[in-house]
Amino acid sequence: MSIKLETRVQHTCFDGAQGFYQHHSEIIGLPMRFSVYEPPLARQQRVPVLFFLAGLTCTEETFMIKAGAQRYAAELGLMLVSMDTSPRDTGITGEADDWEIGAGAGFYLDATEPPWSKYFHMESYVTQELCHVILSKFPADPERMGIFGHSMGGHGALTLALRHPGLYQSVSAFAPIAAPINCLWGQKAFSRYLGESTDSWQKHDATALIESGHRLPALLIDQGLNDPFLAEQLHPDYLETACQKADQPLLLRRHAGYDHSYFFISTFIRDHLQHHLAHLTSTTRQ
Amino acid sequence: MSIKLETRVQHTCFDGAQGFYQHHSEIIGLPMRFSVYEPPLARQQRVPVLFFLAGLTCTEETFMIKAGAQRYAAELGLMLVSMDTSPRDTGITGEADDWEIGAGAGFYLDATEPPWSKYFHMESYVTQELCHVILSKFPADPERMGIFGHSMGGHGALTLALRHPGLYQSVSAFAPIAAPINCLWGQKAFSRYLGESTDSWQKHDATALIESGHRLPALLIDQGLNDPFLAEQLHPDYLETACQKADQPLLLRRHAGYDHSYFFISTFIRDHLQHHLAHLTSTTRQ
Lengths: 286, 286
Hints:
The first copy, chain A, contains ten helices and nine strands. The first copy, chain A, is α/β, with parallel strands linked by helices.
């Protein structure tokens, strides 16, 4: 399969390359946009690559503009990839009318219910097609891939790593929707995308997946205690309890004063990149 | 004069406080917005403060979201202030129709020509009223104030420092409009805001001000060589020549590959904060 990429814009950043790209996605059936930061080391060799999954309303630009991650990626020799949070311009009636469903709210799963099932295949897009594009077109090391994300994208990072064991060697999240079947965001999205049977919901809920025996690499989660979504939507305590019962390694750090914004993410992004590098190195370079 | 601030939103960031504010500006005659990052050290004592002037189309949010400066401000104990780039919602016909003039394009001067002269008083706003608000409401040290900016805001930083000697003890710029009377951006803005007499233009042109005997603290400028505005609009070489003739200290760094974006700014922001801290300390703490 030949891959055609349109380079929308490229910027030099910390002596590396920050690019924004578009391609026709076979899996989605529409154009999709993604972003890549290539550290200086990538001019010489294949480097570890981290996929960042953004949250509700975000695009492939958000993380690259707001997180301040490039300095550390440059220092540590890590490639960063982010992608849009859903298909766009699908023609589905009302697709952009509600920020919790449709455009900007793909929830990193393959929808099974019409009308969303025609285009909303974000799980297959991220784990298969985008992965293939990155490994084919950029100097990324297929044996050292990590995944992380924020909020809805934290849910995505956890569930994609749980559902595709071995694909990602390191995982972390900022303020993830950790038990979506127990919050309104998750219930709304899952009922629209997956239908009313909660059996299918369990397969896309990080806490339920841990409870049913799925496992992850050692997990780092940062959570702000001033996060306005903490009490009703995120439920990291549910995931923490499941991990304790399952002996799933989890470092869950609760930070007084911090909220749900990228000002919170930027404060702790360095720790996440170091976490990934440590696990990518230790698991694959023994 | 009692100062009333509306706090629009605050975020914890690198253990400091990132706030976005609005107040009624007496000098502008309308509400104005600005942003402040207070480093952790500011909880204990007054700290040096840097005013960042953003470029065309930007707002008080741009620098705080995109530059990645807070990490270094937290480490170095520096307060950061940014502000909107013009009055907004003035009712002037066509105020937002052209990105080079009017809303988002205040050029950090006091307009003398109608219709702009009624509200467009950005020089007095930044050097007097905002300065007073910051020193009154935040733990900033009035003896250690620096100014810097980007593009139109680089022009602003240079000219405000040149026109108000002693107010700012440190100055730097990213890709400034260094000789605005010699570029279309400057000619367009100055003719509309200041009238057709170029005598008044000279007083708001950094290169002309140096040539006419004005001086600055030791100046740092970073300029990307892939900047699409370099050849036609920025003219750092004009400023460099004037500084050489005038024995005005200038470190002008030209960076291959870098463009006009905040990806460029973020790469070198640490150097600028260190430049300011060094000069704020050395000039006022002897």
